TrEMBL record:
Keywords of this entry: Hydrolase, Membrane, Metalloprotease, Protease, Transmembrane, Transmembrane helix
PANTHER family: PROTEASE (PTHR35797:SF1), PROTEASE-RELATED (PTHR35797)
Name under which the protein is recorded: CPBP family intramembrane metalloprotease
Species, as recorded: Streptomyces triticagri
Coiled-coil portions: none
Amino acid sequence: MISFAGAWIAMIPLWIDGFRRSDPGQGTPPVAAVCMILMMLVPALTAFGLTVRGRGPRAAVRLLGLTRATPWRHEARSAATALAIPLALTAAGLALATAVGWYAPAHPPGPGTLLPLALSALVSLPLYFGEELGWQGYLLPRLLHLGRTRALLTGGAVWGAWHVPMTALGGSYPGRSPLLGVPVAVLTATLLGTVIAAVRLSTGSVWAAVAAHLSLNEFALPLTGDISGPVVDPLLAGPLSITTWPASALAVLAIWLANRRRGATTPRTDL
């Protein structure tokens, strides 16, 4: 609840100002960027504040999954895999969007496109820890008593609902009514959040989850527009679009089947 309240508080200036994203090509004003940065930091600050009480900073860092759970080489492979997952899901979605005429790829990305994205991702890295320390470091372990699959889906739904203060302003789907944008965003986040949380559980740390979230926002989203001819409607094409739902749903199904094979749906409370 603290993170939800903090998200709404962070967005208050935009609601007062009457800001709304009405076009996919619309830039982000400085005030909106600051509000979004503050919003992304809320979950981590909340999680750390709740965890550090009576335990101390070192214990909080360990409990939130910031310490390495495996050797560095394995961590690097996990992060690389996590970076690739959103790109693969997006590629599958773009193939479907192209097939139905909602997307028109124009050219592959070159070094001039990828280098600025990589630099932006590096600068933005702390913001993704801001979210994932809260969702995957703090919330997910506390949902595992529901069983692994239910915990993953519930965490994804919570993550989607937390974005409502921004989504209702056209954050994910510019120009669309909140009556459409909000439920689509929540369902999309439930699917993608489940995949990100599964990455977190498979590695035992939040680092890979951060890599997956960063890949989604810093690479999959902008690359969708960069390699397209016309302006892209994010509702119809891209990582947050309805055409990516089938691939994401198949990934969630694979996670569920894997959990069943391992007997991981038995309630557990540890990582």
